[in-house]
Amino acid sequence: MTRPADSLIIFIARILLAILFLWGGAMKLLGYAGFIGYLHSRGVPYVQVAAPVVIAVELLGSLALIFGVRMRAIAFLLAVYAVVTAVLGHDFWNVTNAAQQQEAAVHFWKNVAIAGGFLLLTVTGAGRASIDGMRAPRGGLRG
Which ranges does the record mark as transmembrane (predicted)? Predict the structure, then answer.
């Protein structure tokens, strides 16, 4: 059981993590052709399948974060997603230009740090300020 202050902090963390993925998913959807081109340039296989899956993960994952739905499972999925996108999209070890390598390294470690935040949500759950929190049984006498 979490204290009200803990739930507020968990709620703020969920919102802050959701902003990044909501924005990213929306920009990918609005610039779909450019996103498809980017995936092709990265050598992603099955781009016509991968692109909608990525957008769905980002948009639906963001909504699940905001509302606190199935938080432990969603947070774990988003942690894995953040690491996979770090490895596939920010492979600084393959970049030869020093400035681009530095930028890719920053984005790689940013994704790894975001995965850490998601792993914390996997452990803590969504807190009381969530749909999960409303579904959770409360202590006390029932009668």
Answer: 7-26, 46-67, 74-93, 113-131
